[in-house]
Amino acid sequence: MFYTIIEQIVNGIVSGSVYAIVAVGMTMIFGVLRAINFAHGEYYMLGTFGAWFAIEYFDLPYPVAVVIGVVATAVIAVVVGNFVMQRIVGAPAEAGVLATLGVALILQNTVILVFGGGYKFFSGGYIEPVTLFGFTLAEQRILIIVIGLIVFVGLELMVTYSRMGKAMRAVSQNIECCAVVGIDVRHIALWTFILGAALAGLSGVLTAPVNVSVYGGMGELITFKTLPIIIMGGLGNVRGTFVAAMILGIAESLVATYVGLQLRDTVGFATLMLVLMWRPHGLFSAQARF
């Protein structure tokens, strides 16, 4: 029993690492643009399809496909950021909701139109089992945990020491003051959005070998899993997002094992309701962004 519990916690940490990489991008976008990106899961999907296309049609190795998937996602994010996301800076919340929902529908249906709506086999990745401390995990799962830690350490260093990171923190705290002192708020918003979308694409490429199949509607579920994470963590709080993602990943793994797999996808919002009953503003303060 003890071994099974520990094994499910480890599996939950893997899932939590995936959610964390996706959710940190969404929470950074919210912190700077003050808008929840309802198309965020579609960038996860785009990264996956970019890597799948590189492997399927050009027979490229998985590491190269990862780079192609992330770059393709970032390029699309540049276009969307320039034409949509920059224009909702300072706009009412309703404008951001409608704009990002529209982008989600366009991206999802474009992929379905180009590649078809059926499931496709993802043949890349590292699926060989590795035994560590008595637990057996696929190499890909270990890679997900390692890259998740690298991403968060890198983000922490970036927002603390880099010029761009300091500007992002400033904009997240007070847009009006930043505009007064000469910070290009729209430029910062654009690059924050591109970074967030690229992280979602990276998460999709890392998860694809574990999920095995890819399809055009795969981004919807990721978006709905990400929403409770960023709310639980405190809207715009990066560190809180990491903790909330781990809580959700572990909770899903335990529920799937001991209650039922069919209830796994309900865990996020059930956990969110319990957390908000205890702490209405989330686990961490929304004021402590980045």
Verbal overview:
- The chain is mainly alpha-helical and about 290 residues long.
- It is built from 11 helices and 4 strands.
- It has helices spanning about 1-35, 40-60, 60-85, 95-115, 140-160, 165-175, 175-180, 185-210, 220-230, 240-260, 265-280, and strands at about 120, 130, 135-140, 215.
- The chain has a two-stranded antiparallel ribbon with strand order 1-4. Strands 2-3 form a two-stranded antiparallel sheet.
Describe the structure concisely.
This protein is mainly alpha-helical. Helix content is about 75%, strand content about 5%.
Q: Which features does this protein show?
A:
two-stranded antiparallel ribbon, 290 residues, two-stranded antiparallel sheet, mainly alpha, Branched-chain amino acid ABC transporter permease, single chain, BCAA_transport_permease
| Whole-angstrom Rg | 19 Å
**Secondary-structure content class:** mainly alpha
Number of distinct helices? 11
**Average pLDDT rating:** 89
